[in-house]
Amino acid sequence: KSIVSKININMFQPWQKRLMKEIQLLVTEPPKGVQLLEPSLTSDLRSLNITLYGAPNTLYDGEHFELQFQFNEHYPFHCPQVTFIGDNIPIHPHVYSNGHICLSTLSDDWTPALSISAICLSILSMLSSCKKKERPRDNAIYVKTCNKNPNKTQWWFHVDNNCGRNLEEIICNGDNKILSLKNNNENDSISDYYKFLRQNFIKESTMYKVNGDYLEKKIFFNVKCEYQYRLFNLKVQEIYIIMAKKQYDLLFKLLLIGDSGVGKTCILYRFSDDAFNTHFISTIGIDFKIKTIELGGKKVKLQIWDTAGQERAMGIMLVYDITNARSFDNIQKWLRNIQEHASEDVVVMLLGTKCDMADRRVISRERGQQLAIEHNIRFMETSAKANINIDEAFYDLAGAILSKQPSRAENDQLKLRSTDQESSSKSGCC
């Protein structure tokens, strides 16, 4: 019997329950090249080790490396500490000899949407794209003077000139080369980034009388690393998409919208990870989760977005806070937004949050129901904190979308009818 199956989760905190789900998935459906070392797993889930196997036809083919993960109660809102350990630390321009890894996913670009599997695949992708085995150029001084926290290891500490074009070619072409990089990446900030670095290094040259040619190389190294990093991020995103393409019958894209602070992200994480965070953190940018459920005898993958994009959604949860009258008043504005931008057959559900806070309620259940009836949309009250009606709301919305989906037989008939019409139109006399 596996160690994972013996762990008692009844006394676990939400962050440990989230971790346990990830660990169970690693045991039952491990990504290729990733193996959990169960004996390393502590009973409180604060530490575990994973073996990574070098991909075939890469510089690390036939090799294996050990990763150590260390978690605390702030997970998944804070990134775990991840380092290579043991006698075989991979020799790579992004990996220091003490096991620290230069990967922004493990520091500034961490998001709670990531997971243990995602981290492992990011590191495997980094290893697979290596052109030459060598340590970062500043390895000796970094290992001697670095911060002991591996999360402080930044990707720009080192220079990797084994990827991309020759440095001298980049320097000779100057601004035109950076402009070319910018155009290839379709991101205007590359040019701005280059200008910013140039201005700062000019100041540095004046203050310390540093050799100008060295400064130019330093500028271009930084810009090139920025460009390569963004391309690497795109590659990792492609891997996530491949990961998501497991067997399922239907894919439903759902959207959570409503005023800031009403609890959209809490709903998202309670449903996907059975986790709840008591501290409010405003969602910046895009957040999404994927969860597969059994519905009507089919495997239905729910892709749930906490962001804009009504025109692509099949179902929308319109969220207000029952303790905040303004958030309820603004529902009319959100409904107009849906009417203007969403597809005609989108399924909408009105969702009142924080129904466990009866003493602070200002919007009655009846008012919510009446508004839903007026607009012919679904209605439910929920609490992410008390886990009330969260699963029920998503299943109800997904069920309503499923009922609108044509059966396979109907699809075949439509295709056949379309083919017959096309054939008859082509069979007329000239």
TrEMBL record:
The keyword Lipoprotein applies. SUPFAM superfamilies: P-loop containing nucleoside triphosphate hydrolases, UBC-like. It is found in: Cell membrane. Gene3D superfamilies: P-loop containing nucleotide triphosphate hydrolases (3.40.50.300), Ubiquitin Conjugating Enzyme (3.10.110.10). Keywords: Cell membrane, GTP-binding, Lipoprotein, Membrane, Nucleotide-binding, Prenylation, Protein transport, Transferase, Transport, Ubl conjugation pathway. One of its GO terms (cellular component) is plasma membrane. Residues 421-430 have a biased composition (Polar residues). Coiled coil: none annotated. It catalyses: S-ubiquitinyl-[E1 ubiquitin-activating enzyme]-L-cysteine + [E2 ubiquitin-conjugating enzyme]-L-cysteine = [E1 ubiquitin-activating enzyme]-L-cysteine + S-ubiquitinyl-[E2 ubiquitin-conjugating enzyme]-L-cysteine; S-ubiquitinyl-[E1 ubiquitin-activating enzyme]-L-cysteine + [acceptor protein]-N-terminal-amino acid = [E1 ubiquitin-activating enzyme]-L-cysteine + N-terminal-ubiquitinyl-[acceptor protein]. Its EC number is 2.3.2.23, 2.3.2.25. Residues 410-420 have a biased composition (Basic and acidic residues). It is a lipid-anchor. Residues 14-166 form the UBC core domain. One of its GO terms (biological process) is protein ubiquitination. Residues 410-430 are annotated as: Disordered. It comes from the Eukaryota. The keyword Methyltransferase does not apply. GO terms for molecular function: GTP binding; GTPase activity; ubiquitin conjugating enzyme activity. Pfam families: Ras (PF00071), UQ_con (PF00179). Belongs to the small GTPase superfamily. Rab family. NCBIfam families: small_GTP. This is Ras-related protein Rab-13. The lineage of its organism: Eukaryota, Metazoa, Ecdysozoa, Nematoda, Chromadorea.
